[in-house]
């Protein structure tokens, strides 16, 4: 049946993506089996990712507004992106993109409440698709480039604290599904 394939059943296949499963299950319950509606949700997520890329780009390159606009348009319209919209289970790509971009935007604000939001967004992104693990590295590159920092400046609290908020949920999302069965006690993730 619908939920019995290896994609959804366990993490041993390397395809542990519970947010994909959760969103598709909710959609199936609410919208029934209408593939065009699943594709419409995928299209909406892809469009939202393009808008977030534009917002992030404008924040990083405010003096050249055409650059982020062109990057967002290329992202939105590139032929490689058709699979993300047309293939229903490719929801993981768009979901990871949306929540990764949100995590970066929130982490760059460096407000304490925003850091918790960034951590939550990264965790959701990682649960859509583990490739979101690159977000802490992207934050580090942006922080270095944006503020023209030297390597030794990377160890200041203004960079380390947001980086920790981004790293911990990502590590948890990757490592917890791999825990041996029962490792976290009865009823835990591995139990």
Descriptive overview:
The protein is mainly α and 191 residues long. The protein is built from 9 helices and no strands. It has helices at 6-9, 18-31, 35-60, 66-77, 82-86, 91-109, 112-128, 135-146, 157-175. Helix 6 (91-109) runs antiparallel to helix 7, helix 6 runs parallel beside helix 8 (135-146) and helix 8 packs antiparallel against helix 9. The radius of gyration is 18 Å and the shape is globular. It starts with 5 loop residues before the first helix and ends in a 16-residue tail after the last helix.
Structural class: mainly alpha
First-last Cα distance: 24 Å
Largest sheet: none
Flag low-confidence runs: 179-191
Question: What is the typical, i.e. mean, pLDDT?
Answer: 77
Number of helices: 9
Which helices and strands appear, and what pairs or packs with what?
Elements (H helix, E strand, L loop, with lengths): L5 H4 L8 H14 L3 H26 L5 H12 L4 H5 L4 H19 L2 H17 L6 H12 L10 H19 L16
Helix pairs in contact: 3-4, 3-6, 6-7, 6-8, 7-9, 8-9
